[in-house]
Amino acid sequence: MSSSELSAQPVNLKLDEDTLPPQSLWRMTLRRFRRHRMAMVGLFTLMGIILYIGVGSLIFTEAFANHNDTRLRLQPPSAEHPFGTDTVGRDILARTIYGGQISIIIGLFSVIVAVSMGTAVGAVSGYYGGKVDSTLMRLTEAMLSIPTLLLLLVMAKFFSGRIPDLVIFGRTFSGSVLVIIIIIGLTSWMYLGRIVRASFLSLKESEFVLAARALGVRDRQIILAHILPNSMAPIIVAATLGVAGAILTEAYISFLGMGVRPPTATWGSMLDGAYQYIEQAPWLWFFPGLLIILTVISINFVGDGLRDALDPRSDKKV
After folding, report:
1. DSSP structure class, residue 259
2. 35-72+83-309 maps to which CATH number?
3. Residue 230: CA atoms inside 13 Å, Cβ hemisphere, count?
4. Which positions ≥6 away from 122 have C-beta within 8 Å?
5. In this model, does residue 9 exceed pLDDT 80?
6. DSSP assignment, residue 61?
7. What is the model's pLDDT at position 119?
8. I need a labelling partner for 70 at 20 to 30 A (CA). Which of 173, 182, 219, 228 fits?
């Protein structure tokens, strides 16, 4: 075949994914996350649960979820009550909807408290070092040496009933919801604090930080504008996984009778009322337990995907 014939042939060049033009950090992160199959499964499952508790509240009212009818107590799943009824005749489907809202709210807001404290302690400790670092790390180690579950139970018992019910957007929340959020947040920041400290210790000697210091940039601006944005990857991953941990922790203490008080329902408090009927009425624990498992597993899958996607050295095809 002559050179003229070769030049006339169409040339099909297929660019490999690794030879594509440079992309932004967040675009590459999104691409790696989308390649993580289990993370996508977890994301879609989590979105389905959020739709379930969101759309469900438009179908069932909270008054219906809390309505007692002892004539219908311990009814098995049926067309009228797809998840059955509980020991006082309340519809379990409606209660899992509103209970799920409170469980996820507790998980999100307790993580906000934990991330705020852990980031603040870790940033100050890692950046300033010296006596500040030593003092804050001794405090962190002291908190880590206290059994978390025992501390939760003691604090929940002490503050139980001391905070009145809260009315937010027309809904009545037991004051114990706020207590649980604060308690879980204050007892779960330590590991994140140590992670952030390690990140700050490695980044504060970087060239861009030294250049900012040479230009006279104040410490506060260096921490917030230069080092903290480069430490967001472990913070985001820890926050994501912390939501799952907070939901499980709330379920633990609610199952032990120290959690959220009536009339507010959570998946954990629903399990607390079901352990006496494990064989007689398995639907009492099956549906809230299943929702807890699906939510926690989904969040863990998403957290694993974020951990791989935010790692710049991770370019594996999953």
Report:
1. S
2. 1.10.3720.10
3. 16
4. 192, 193, 194, 195, 196, 197, 198, 199, 200
5. no
6. -
7. 92
8. 173
Label residue 12 exposed, middle or buried (CB < 10 Å: 0-12, 13-18, 19+): exposed
What's the token pair of residue 160? 């139980």
Query: Cα dihedral sign for 37, 103, 98, 281?
Result: positive
Instruction: Give the whole-angstrom CA distance, residue 263 versus residue 280.
Output: 25
pLDDT of residue 245: 87
> How far is the C-alpha of 87 from the C-alpha of 75, rounded, in Å?
9
Q: d(Cα 36, Cα 145) in Å, to the nearest integer?
A: 36
Question: Cα separation of 167 and 173, whole Å?
Answer: 6
Asked, as a colleague might, if the bond just before 263 is cis with ω within 30 of 0, I would say yes
Contact by Cβ (8 Å): 275, 189: no
How many Å apart are CA 90 and CA 99, to the nearest integer? 13
Residue 176 has pLDDT above 90, yes or no: no
Whose structure tokens read 């007892």? 187
What's the full length of the chain, in residues? 318
> In this model, does residue 69 exceed pLDDT 90?
no
Q: How far from each other are the two terminal CA atoms of the chain, in whole angstroms? A: 43
Calculate the average pLDDT of the chain: 81
